[in-house]
Recover the amino acids of this structure.
């Protein structure tokens, strides 16, 4: 038993990181301290001066551990790494309100490509963006690939006898796979593409405009229209950049704004003196926290994962630990980094520009937050109508399960988790069915549920957190199967069934033997609905109301609950099918050649390319087998002997 009072006495008077855990052993908060003993003790003293978020967190602390560090800088770096690894519930975590695309030039590949990505990686590639106009990004990438005939596929090598794809034949790719492309000439084209993406696009615009006018004069109107679209895309990407500084400086501007849903940090990037990027990050519930604290937390979270650190960061308010953060960022950049709160001059004017942009962005963010709050509140009320005030009001974590197979082959189970009405993909789990053969979904679900909740009883950290309710994909049969498992394990978890119509859509929610219709019933009642008593007459066997039970008035118009169940069903179907397909794909890739000693993936492909099929390999002589690329006499003997032995046994 972890005794917090006793463990507090053991804390050292040194820098380090502390990790708070809940009753399930999950890490819910990571912090750093100059003095671990003093800092951790503060959480368990009078809550009067604590923020609401901290008071709520302390209620859930069941134990803590600490990691000592040699200095405050080491503790800061360790804190960033631990938060990135565990993503604790009560730490400030960055969530992009929108992920904008980047253009990526894969310079570390032998034959670099120009591609779109929404993910920045430290892989030696060159990134341009982010760009708000995803459509223009697609056109620009298509333009560069077409104009310079760059490599489009992601293949790194090509087997002997490889046939070029359609792009080569329609002159949209030089055909790296043919082995006839001049490397120096190709890299010159890549350099031109990089120059264009870097903003040096005047020569290309002039060239395209002249070509468009020439095509129009020659009445090649389709070609002229395509060139016009290319020019429009270039202008679209150029217009987003505004000159805001007289000198070509690189810097970031950070601004904290508070909206309906909580605090946001708005990040504006200035590159070469131009305002080139705007992103917003949601910090969650930050009631009681100062702007300086929020800025410091954002700096630690964001720049620990960023590929670039600018020389200067403009702020509205200095963060605590200013010198430590500047020292840390300087080490990452390799040169001096400084914070500045501008009071006059063009950088103050830049802050004013940013504030005006922030007002517009915040209005848009708030409008989306307002609509989401309305939906969340409506969903909560509808859950209360079905589950009652006590359960419906606190229904946060919901789990759902599904089975996927083809005629009982490669059966798998899937578990998805929704928290606060949204998917928590880190909590998803998948299962291979072990004990059930054939097409028996109910029995397979029973196995999955038993394994999931047995692991919870055993204290498995990956399954320790129990749901507030289980939503089964089906009616009475599936609900009763889940209840039987939970009863056998001594667990009290409510179970509801999502009953489907003949179009496989959720039409009702089954709870405690009563069906609650989620879709409108045509009639003359209020809002076009008639009261429905006794459940659905056509679905008694699928989970309709038990005989003698009275269903409540039809709840048609429960759009949010209907949509919620629909999302839950679609997500669990998708996750189950995705897992089943991955297993089936692996099975399809398996070959009889995998059973031959000395034959790996490369030799298998070489033999299949050389002889066309397994039958061709069987018919080949030892001498011919040895001549295939990557083969030798010893391995050829093993292949020949394997198929000779299989033929003699009739396999």
């Amino acid at each position: 038993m972890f005794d917090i009072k006793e463990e507090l006495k053991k804390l050292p008077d040194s820098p380090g990181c502390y990790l708070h855990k809940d009753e399930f052993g999950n890490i819910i908060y990571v912090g750093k301290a100059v003095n671990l003993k003093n800092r951790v003790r503060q959480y368990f003293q009078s809550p009067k001066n604590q923020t609401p978020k901290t008071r709520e967190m302390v209620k859930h602390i069941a134990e803590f551990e600490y990691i000592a560090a040699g200095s405050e800088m080491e503790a800061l770096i360790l804190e960033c790494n631990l938060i990135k690894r565990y993503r604790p519930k009560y730490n400030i975590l960055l969530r992009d309100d929108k992920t904008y695309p980047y253009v990526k030039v894969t310079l570390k590949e032998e034959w670099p490509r120009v591609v779109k990505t929404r993910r920045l990686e430290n892989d030696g590639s060159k990134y341009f963006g982010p760009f708000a106009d995803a459509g223009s990004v697609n056109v620009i990438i298509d333009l560069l690939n077409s104009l310079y005939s760059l490599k489009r596929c992601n293949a790194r090598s090509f087997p002997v006898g490889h046939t070029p794809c359609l792009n080569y034949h329609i002159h949209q790719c030089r055909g790296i796979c043919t082995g006839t492309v001049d490397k120096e000439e190709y890299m010159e084209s890549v350099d031109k593409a990089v120059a264009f993406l870097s903003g040096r696009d005047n020569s290309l615009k002039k060239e395209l405009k002249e070509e468009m006018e020439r095509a129009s004069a020659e009445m090649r109107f389709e070609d002229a229209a395509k060139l016009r679209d290319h020019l429009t895309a270039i202008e679209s990407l150029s217009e987003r950049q505004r000159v805001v500084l007289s000198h070509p400086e690189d810097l970031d501007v950070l601004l904290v704004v508070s909206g309906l849903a909580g605090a946001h940090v708005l990040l504006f990037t200035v590159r070469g003196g131009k305002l080139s990027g705007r992103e917003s990050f949601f910090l969650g519930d930050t009631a009681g926290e100062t702007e300086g604290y929020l800025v410091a937390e954002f700096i630690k979270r964001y720049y620990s994962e960023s590929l670039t650190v600018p020389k200067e960061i403009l702020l509205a308010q200095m963060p605590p630990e200013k010198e430590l953060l500047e020292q840390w960022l300087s080490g990452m950049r390799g040169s001096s980094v400084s914070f500045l709160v501008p009071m006059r001059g063009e950088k103050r004017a830049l802050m004013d520009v940013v504030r005006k942009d922030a007002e517009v962005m915040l209005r848009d963010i708030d409008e989306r937050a307002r609509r989401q709050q309305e939906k969340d509140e409506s969903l909560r009320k509808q859950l209360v109508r079905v589950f009652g005030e006590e359960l419906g009001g606190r229904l946060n974590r919901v789990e759902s399960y599904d089975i996927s197979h083809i005629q009982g082959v490669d059966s798998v189970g899937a578990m998805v988790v929704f928290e606060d009405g949204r998917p928590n993909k880190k909590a998803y789990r998948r299962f291979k069915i072990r004990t059930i053969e054939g097409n028996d979904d109910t029995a397979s679900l029973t196995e999955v549920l038993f394994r999931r909740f047995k692991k919870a009883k055993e204290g498995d950290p990956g399954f320790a957190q129990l749901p507030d309710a289980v939503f089964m994909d089906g009616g009475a049969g599936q609900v009763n199967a889940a209840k039987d498992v939970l009863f056998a394990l001594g667990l009290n978890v409510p179970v509801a069934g999502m009953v489907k119509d003949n179009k496989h859509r959720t039409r009702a929610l089954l709870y405690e033997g009563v069906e609650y219709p989620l879709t409108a019933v045509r009639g003359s009642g209020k809002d076009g609905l008639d009261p429905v008593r006794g459940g659905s007459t056509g679905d008694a066997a699928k989970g309709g109301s038990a005989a003698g039970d009275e269903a409540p008035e039809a709840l048609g118009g429960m759009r949010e609950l209907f949509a919620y169940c629909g999302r839950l069903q679609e997500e669990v179907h998708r996750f189950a099918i995705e897992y089943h397909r991955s297993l089936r794909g692996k099975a399809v890739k398996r070959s009889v050649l995998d059973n031959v000693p000395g034959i790996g993936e490369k030799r298998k492909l070489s033999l299949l390319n050389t002889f066309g099929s397994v039958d061709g390999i069987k018919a080949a002589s030892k001498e011919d087998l040895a001549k295939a690329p990557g083969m030798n006499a010893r391995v050829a003997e093993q292949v020949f002997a394997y198929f000779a032995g299989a033929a003699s046994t009739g396999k």
